[in-house]
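thread: overnight batch results

M.L. [08:02]
morning all. the overnight job finished for the chain we discussed friday. pasting input first so we're all looking at the same thing
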Amino acid sequence: MRAEFAQAMVALFERRKDLVFITGDLGYMALEGVAEAFGERFINAGVAEQNAVSLAAGLARAGHLPWVYSAAVFTVLRPYEQIRNDVCLHELPVKLVGNGGGYAYGIMGATHHALEDVGAMRVLPNMRIYLPLVAADVARVVSTMADDPLPNYLRLGLAAKLPGTVPAFAPWRKLKPGRSRVVIGMGPVLQGLYELGDRALLDELEIWSVGTFPLADIPAELAASIQEKRAVISIEEHYRAGGLGEALSHSLLTSGVIPESLVCLHAAGYPSGRYGSQRWHLAESGLSGPPLASRLKELLRA
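M.L. [08:03]
and the structure it wrote out:
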């Protein structure tokens, strides 16, 4: 999604000139077009994300619309105090963009993986989170964020490639019908469900995508389906704590939509103590490939 994001930023800058783009000394072979379009409004802050966020807060206070871009783990965790104190407590419209959510940086290891970024952002006051699923979502999300008066976090990853027509970006999207289980996921990890290689298994799953936090009210169609099927599975490339499963359980309880079971599939961290590609980590966590298929078949038998 990085290329789509860069294109969206250039297009947005053509419409409004209050933007400032701040990067933490990365984006080689990706942000050159942004730098050319923005000119002096493109700032390389160096390996200093804390300074970048504080600078962004000051620019926002002065009436500019700053975007801070880095690897997701560096966008969120390294400047966390500045995000909390300088941005969120003052309700400033700083737009934080994290590339490579989840295990996206693969073999680079835990220091570059963002498995707690959504949870960290969720607990901050006034923060809204945007989670695109497919490449076509990015331009719409960028435009929405630009009009959002609150602080935002955009989690980018490798765009999912899904069959058929995917509905336009929204807080909730129904991706496909299914017979016996409702699966609710966030971000491109949902692609793993379509790669199971088992048509009968996939036919059992009604799949929904979550696009924003805080979670919007549960749609009537989804609530009715949960009441009918009585079984919900959440899936996320994120630790269980602070992630989609926890947010979903709260939302279901408070809305009175109570399934008989809610199973949360989530990142397991590093069970083997080894590092590999994103696909390898997802399989080790049971979020893709044969491990995911085995877990889903087990749940369908229950």
